[in-house]
Amino acid sequence: MTDGRTAAEEPYVLQVENLETRFSTEHGWLRAVDNVSFNLPKGKTIGVVGESGSGKSVLSRTIMGLLPSNARVNDDAKVIFEGKDLRQMSEAELRHIRGPEIAMVFQDPMSSLNPVMKIGKQIAESQIVHLGLSKKDARNNAIELLREVGIPLPEKRVDEYPHQLSGGMRQRVAIAIALACQPKLLIADEPTTALDVTVQAEILDLLQREQQDRHMTMILITHDLGVVAGRTDYVGVMYAGQIVEQADTKDLFQNMRMRYTEALLNSIPRLEDEPHKRLETVGGRPPDLVSPPPGCRFAPRCQYADEKCTEDEPPFGVGAGLTGHSFACWHPIQPAGGTR
Amino acid sequence: MSDALLDIENLVVRFGAVQAVSDVTFEVRKSETLGLVGESGCGKSSTARAVMQLPRPTSGEVRLAGQNLVALKGSDLRQLRPKIQMIFQDPISSLNPRRTVLDIVSAPLEVVGKGSKAERKQIVHDMLEAVGLDPDLAMGRRPHEFSGGQCQRISIARALVLEPEVLICDEPVSALDVSVQAQILNLLQDMKERYGLTILFISHDLAVVKNISDRVAVMYLGKICEVAPSELLYKKPAHPYTVALLSAVPVPDPTAELKKVALIAGDLPSPTSPPSGCRFRTRCPYAQAKCAEDEPPLVELAPNHQVACHFPLIDN
What we know:
- Chain A is built from twelve helices and 13 strands.
- Chain A is globular, with a radius of gyration of 21 Å.
- By secondary structure, chain A is α/β, with parallel strands linked by helices.
- Chain B starts with a strand and ends in a 9-residue tail after the last strand.
- By secondary structure, chain B is an alpha/beta fold.
- In chain B, the strands form two sheets. An eight-stranded mixed sheet of chain B has the order 6-7-8-3-9-10-12-11, sandwiched between helices. In chain B, strands 2-1-4-5 form a four-stranded antiparallel sheet, with helices on one face.
- The longest helix of chain B has 18 residues, at 178-195.
């Protein structure tokens, strides 16, 4: 996610501008995504990190145009994918984008797979529809894809149903489906949250390998900063519907500026810590997005907040001396250098 | 073994053809937290439920302060049940959505017939306060009005209201965000100190287990493969499986070398036909002929450090 450059200088696969997604609820309009802008350079992986309810999944669904009927997106929002604004496209046009151009992997592989369709058919389906392959070719491709994502005995597995596979294997199948039409952009929405740590490491390795081999651009959505650390080029941290800090991954971890990002990082238990070490927590809860507090949205939970924070909303911008590292805070952590 | 509050000996749990827990022996000492780690399907939840006698184990003994729960029946067992309580992974589905928090947390008190209605309300009030909820706001509400972390606090309140000696936690933070996970882990630690609890803590995440546990037992396909104090297990893991689990924990530092999982890829073998000899050998990078023939027993490698491996990694 980089700022301040135009599309002419660098080929961006995706450019999001002033995106606001609101949901109509009985209490009023809920601002799930609020004024989000970012650019994704081709072939890079971007991590989007935030707590439950921070708007990261709504953001990805807005990009895909997969929103429920009570959602509204502002008219001046732009979601430019390879030069074309997806917001201006009809549903029929979007159907040619979803799958062959932008594919998605979801959190729960059991509910994202069709339980009554053989997995081979689920992988082949999009190739038949979008690429016009014959059934036979699509089936052979499906077997190859299953082999590629690390499923043993793919010739046999291709005729099995999702319930015959373990959670990790199902997620591999979901990845094979997403990769079937060679998408340019892959959105992985908490792809490992429902899985064991050993399987999580394998799935993340697999996604990383596929992203590099296919020169795909990837958005990796997670609530765990540990997951994005070694596997992304850029990170955007979301809080209460807004991106509050974004930077090159190494820079983010080394020169963390937002108190919220720091709090998220410190809440992760670490192997090298002593047993029973007290974990740092963020007190309170995320704000009500129907009527968010004035000023900085994190201020009610921030121990450094003062009057200014509760009155004026901090602008999201690039900090002095740090190229491309943006954040929204009146009292940022002073960059000291070094890790952590 | 004199300080063991909970003694589990030769525990076997079988569901039809599946042997979920195969001859497991361990102890939980008084006032300690024992972490039980392993992947999905390794039998850790079945072990926990067998300790609760829900359902009863196929064979083996579960002794609480010397009393074998497996041999107890009817009212004798019921009298001991308040001493062992449990919390579960999914806090929302483990609470009855149609009842208020007051009903939910006071239900255990009603079952054992403790106190009058007013007294029970007072106990619930104090308990909710202890777990960090505002009792006056919470008591009249129903579970759907709370977040996942708050529901887990309600579950903890319900489990502790009978003042148990042992608390069994089955993946209590796996469904929660990292920020909420930290709150619940801190709360469990506070509760342990405040009520003198002994905890059996089950999880697949070694970093979480290390944070909360005094000792850790690693389980693989129905068997215990390593037991050690948590610091020692992290510094000197002896079983190749423990090493693999440790290397799978994501490190929140982009400059750290990404450790690839030292496992031979693949799933847990089926517990209906476990591999001969050492059960881990099909995924173990160090497996040799002997591993397929003889099953390695759980032996003492050093004081307080047991491992079940023919070729333990003692040099690292």
